[in-house]
Amino acid sequence: xxxxxxxxxxxxxxxxxxxxxxxxxxxxxxxxxxxxxxxxxxxxxxxxxxxxxxxxxxxxxxxxxxxxxxxxxxxxxxxxxxxxxxxxxxxxxxxxxxxxxxxxxxxxxxxxxxxxxxxxxxxxxxxxxxxxxxxxxxxxxxxxxxxxxxxxxxxxxxxxxxxxxxxxxxxxxxxxxxxxxxxxxxxxxxxxxxxxxxxxxxxxxxxxxxxxxxxxxxxxxxxxxxxxxxxxxx
Length: 234
What we know:
The protein is of the alpha+beta class. It has ten helices and four strands. 60% of the residues lie in helices and 7% in strands. Helix 4 packs parallel to helix 6.
């Protein structure tokens, strides 16, 4: 298998859904790697040297060469370790559709999710939840289109778009625990809710999962930082 014997390291954090996305891809491909936990509040030299533009996790180090941005990394992993568990569809149109919806998730859904976390009042949070539900709604139809009536976005097995959305599911659960909100609601998006339940039961999701307690603690730190910044601005 191409790249099989190469040195692979992942710079990430246990709570980063984007690092989880990459861990899932590596697991699906059967790639052995070293997981290097980073402190995103006090960034170390290795992270800053490996991703000097964004200064963010995740970063994949493959034979000493960095690859940045989680969706880019997942595609890289799919190409380098091409002999096992293809993640992107073989059909060019299918690949384009999967990439479109993956970008949509990171642009619209993640932004809406963070809006809920940033909200400072119940009224504001309710408005942000409405925005999140509106962002998630198109994915119900996207699932029907991409899955072809099968279990996952990629069909019979987990693929690129499953990882793109699935990596955020435990953050959705953490927000439910913190604020009592449901971003994927079986009443509004039943097919998507059923997919989420199936995805979280896969070995891939379980092996890469972030502990809910850790996510809640990290989310609390973010809220405290944002509150301090807002207070200083006033």
